[in-house]
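In the laboratory, one determines a bound structure by crystallizing the protein with its ligand and collecting diffraction data. In a computational setting the workflow is compressed into a single prediction: the sequence and the ligand go in, and a structural description comes out. We illustrate the idea with magnesium ion.
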Amino acid sequence: MKFGGTSVADAQCIQRVVDILEKHHKAGDELAVVVSAKRGVTDQLIGIATALPTAKDDTAIAPLIQALSRRHITTLEGAAPDYVGEVGAEMEEQLIRLQNILFAIYHLRELTPRSKDYVISFGERLLAPILSAAIRQRGIASTVMDGCEAGILTTPQHGESTSLPESDERIKRRVGPLLGKEIPVIMGFMGCTRDGVLTTLGRSGSDYSASIIGAGIDADEIWIWTDVDGIMTCDPRVINDARVMPSLSYLEVMELSYFGAKVMHPRSIEPAMRKNILVRVKNTFNPSHPGTVIVRNGKRDNRVVKALTYIDKVAAININGAQMIGRPGVAKAIFTILADHEVNVMMISQGSSEANISLIVDESHLSAAVKALSELMKQGVVREVSHNHDVCAVAVVGAGMAGAPGTGGRIFTALGHAEVNVMMISQGSSEANISFVVSQSDGPRAVRVLHDEFRLSEESDE
Ligand code: ADP
Ligand code: ASP
Ligand code: MG
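The predicted complex, in C-alpha cell form:
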C-alpha cells in the first residue's frame, strides 16, 4: 500500500492511514507500506536547493529547517505520542544533515544532480519514521527503510532514475521476511545506484516505488491510496463532472499517465504489469469507495473513448529543411542528438512532404532541444528550427479505439464544430490513444468538448 502526500498531511491524516492498515492487518493481510513526503515538502526542498547557488545570502536556510521541524514534530506528537523522544531525536539528526548540505550548496555555489537528489529525498526521510511510530503506537511492530535499504537499485540518472532488474531479488530478500511479522514502512521516491549513491525516481515517484516493491515481493495486489476516489475520466480540476472509472487496463493507465494524468507516475505500471499484479487506486478519505482496478485487460465495455488528459507544460518545435526529402538519415540525426541532450520527445509528426517534422517536448526540455537542433542547423542537416510555447497537448485514451473506425473523425469533427484549431495530431502505435496539440487558450475548451462528445460523465451501459 502506498500513501501519497495529502494522505499523510497531518496527525489526523496519519491516524486515518493507520486505521486502514490496522484493519487489514487484523484481517490477516500481509502488508508493506510505501510513503511519500508530506504534501508540499518536496516542492519546498526543490525550491531552496535550486535557489541557493545564486542566492545573495544563506538566510533562507534556518527558517526552512525550523518550519520543517515544527511541522513534523507536531505531526509526530499527535500521531505517536509515546515515540516523541526517540523519533524526535532521529528527526533532529536528519534536519542537521539537511542543513549542513544546504550550507554546502550555498558556499560551493553549485547544485549537482547528485546533491539535489539527496536534498529532495528528505521529505520522505522525515515523514516515514512518523508513520512507522504511529503504527507501533497501535501495538503493531514496524520498522523504517529507505528505498535503497528496501532493495531498490536504479540507473544513475539523477532525478529520473529507473529500477534495475536486480531490484526484485534484493527486495524479496530484504522486505519479504518482514511480511506478516510487522508492517515495514518504506520511503518512497528513492533508490540507489550499484555504488550506493542515492537517486530519485522522478516527481510523484512514490507510485513507482510502490510498484517496484510490489513486484519484488510478488504482492497479490498493489494499492495506491490518494485523495480522490480513483482514476477519473479527466483531471477533476479541469472537468468538474469527471467520473471515477471502475476498471482500466495497464495500457490505458500508461497512456493516461504518460500524457500527464497526475494521478499516477508514468512508469508506475510497468513493474506491476511485468508480474501481472492487480493495482487499485483508492481514496484514503473515503476508503469504502471501491476505487479503480487496473488489470491486464480492463473490463470490456461499450466505450471506445474512456478518458482525456491535458498537459499545458509542453512546447512545440518545428523543424524545416528541404534537405530532409528522401534522406532517411535526417530523422536519425535529429532523434540521436535530442537523446544525447536528454530531451524527452512526447509526440512526433511528419508532414507528408517530408520537409517538415514537428515535435512536442516537455517545456523544461525546450532549451536543451533548441540547443541540440541548432547544432544540426550548423551542420546543414536541417534548415530552420522554430518553437512555440503557447501550446498544450490533449490525449484521448481508450483501449477500445484499436479497430474502432471513426473515432478520429468524431474527435476532430467535434473540435471543428467548436472552432478549436488543431495544430498537430499523433496516434500512438498502441492505438489506445490519439493525441493532438492546440493553442494553450483552446486547451480546456477542447477537453470540455470531447468530455461531452463521448458522454464521459455518464455511467456506461455495460
Ligand atoms: P498523491 O499525493 O496521493 O500522490 P497526487 O496529487 O499526486 O496525489 O495525485 C492525485 C491528484 O491527481 C488528484 O487530486 C487530482 O487532482 C489529480 N488528477 C489529475 N488527473 C486525474 C485523473 N484523471 N483522475 C484522478 N485524479 C487526477
Ligand atoms: N515526494 C515526491 C514528490 O513530491 C514523490 C511523491 O510524492 O510521490 O514528487
Ligand atoms: Mg502522486
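The pocket of adenosine-5'-diphosphate (ligand 1) is lined by residues 4-7, 36, 204, 226-228, 231-232, 234-237, 261-263 (CB under 6 Å). Keep in mind that any predicted model is a hypothesis to be tested, not a measurement.
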